[in-house]
Design goal:
Elements lengths: L16 H12 L6 H8 L3 H13 L4 E4 L3 E4 L8 H4 L12 E4 L5 H10 L7 E4 L21 E7 L8 H20 L4 E3 L3 E4 L2 E13 L2 E11 L26 H22 L2 H10 L6 E6 L2 E10 L5 E4 L5 E4 L3 E4 L2
Parallel strand pairs: 3-4
Antiparallel strand pairs: 1-2, 4-5, 5-9, 6-7, 7-8, 8-9, 10-11, 10-14, 11-12, 12-13
The structure holds biotinyl-5-AMP.
The site of biotinyl-5-AMP has 28 residues, from helix 5, strand 5, strand 8 and strand 9.
Length: about 325
């Protein structure tokens, strides 16, 4: 297993090795660990331990302290420590390295930077929060700390750029599958890049690429999932949701691991057999087909029945007069 947390784009905050070890010790302890125990395990003075704990607290980690008993992680504080992310996962193509950050502007931007520097396929960038998380067309992706998953994988598919939309659909298939496996919750896919729960947006996918003559040089595949986000800013309340509405708390680590496994599997199918084989699974999971939708493509608006997905990922919309339109990208709303 390879972990690699030290590449530092602008405004990135990451854990020092010793902070990571300290959190690991607290995570694995079933009870409080005294300052003396931590000091001995980390070969630090007790003052140095205390300073590290203060620093972790200032980063948002909830470490409880009691002068009598020592330190422990607050119940419910779940960590995404790099060492645990890939541990024992049977991954074929997307097997790290992992770059873990406490805070980043955007995991897609950091991954792009790494990809330009030659980072291999399978490189994962994951952040506990984003300060400039992005959706498509420069839109904002709200990324509050420690509640959701914000990650980007670097892919290097030896494929023409025109296949990028089908890669986004493939990632959506992986995301609903992972949510089902890790949380037991069934979600749906809204074409092209939304993960939907109870009619609202639970997650989104942002695939971006750089090309080299007629093939993709690299793709950064970004996924944002609201797992335990308790509330959203006012302007998102009508459209955004998280699994917190079920009244339970879900493991971000388990969901991330399930997502990596699902992406590894479906990306392999994509490379070996193409999108055709994935389409059947996509159809089962979508909430878009069979609905009357209104698509906006720049200035144009197309209203009709969302009938099918073409092999290249385009949505086929049938107007009331029977004419068909292929929509390759854009935004769809229920019509009416
Ligand atoms: C998306 O864009 O849905 C793609 C979101 C991808 C986010 C991930 S997080 C990791 C990686 N790093 C990044 O910087 N981005 C990726 P789009 O279809 O354009 O939807 C954006 C719209 O969703 C916004 O304009 C809001 O209306 C809404 N939105 C913003 N934050 C949201 C949230 N946390 N949950 C649900 N909806 C949200």
């Amino acid at each position: 297993m390879v972990t690699e947390p030290k590449a530092a784009p602008a405004a990135a905050v990451y854990l020092e090795q010793v902070q990571e070890e300290l959190l690991g010790l607290l995570q694995n302890a079933s009870t409080f660990l005294s300052g003396a125990q931590l000091a001995a395990r980390l070969q630090l003075s007790r003052t140095a331990v205390w300073k590290r704990i203060e620093r972790l607290r200032s980063l948002g980690y909830q470490v409880e302290g009691s002068s009598r008993r020592g330190y422990r992680l607050a119940p419910g504080q779940e960590l995404l420590l790099p060492a645990a992310i890939l541990a024992d996962l049977p991954l074929q193509r997307l097997a790290g390295p992992v770059h873990h950050y406490v805070s980043l502007p955007s995991t897609n931007d950091a991954a792009k930077e790494l990809a330009r520097q030659g980072a291999p396929e399978g490189t994962l960038v994951v952040a506990e929060r984003q300060t400039a998380g992005r959706g498509r067309l420069g839109r904002v992706w709200e990324s509050p700390p420690f509640t959701g998953l914000y990650l980007t994988l670097i892919l290097r598919p030896p494929r023409p750029p025109a296949e990028l939309p089908t890669l986004t659909l493939t990632a959506a298939v992986a995301a609903v599958e992972a949510l089902q496996t890790a949380t037991g919750v069934t979600t749906g896919i809204k074409w092209p890049n939304d993960i939907i729960f109870q009619g609202k947006k639970l997650g989104g996918i942002l695939t971006e690429m750089e090309t080299e003559s007629d093939r993709m040089s690299f793709v950064v595949l970004g996924v944002g999932l609201n797992l335990n986000t308790p509330v959203f800013p006012e302007h998102l309340r009508e459209i955004a949701t998280s699994l917190a509405v079920t009244g339970r708390t879900y493991s971000r680590l388990a969901t991330l691991r399930a997502l990596l496994q699902a992406l590894d599997h479906w990306y392999d199918v994509f490379l070996r057999d193409g999108f055709g084989d994935i389409l059947a699974r996509w159809r089962q999971a979508t909430v878009t087909l069979g609905k009357v939708v209104c698509c906006r493509q720049g200035e144009r608006e197309i209203t009709g029945l969302a009938r099918e997905i073409a092999p290249d990922g385009a949505l086929i919309v049938v107007r009331p007069d029977g004419t068909e339109e292929r929509v390759l990208s854009g935004e769809i709303q229920p019509a009416g």
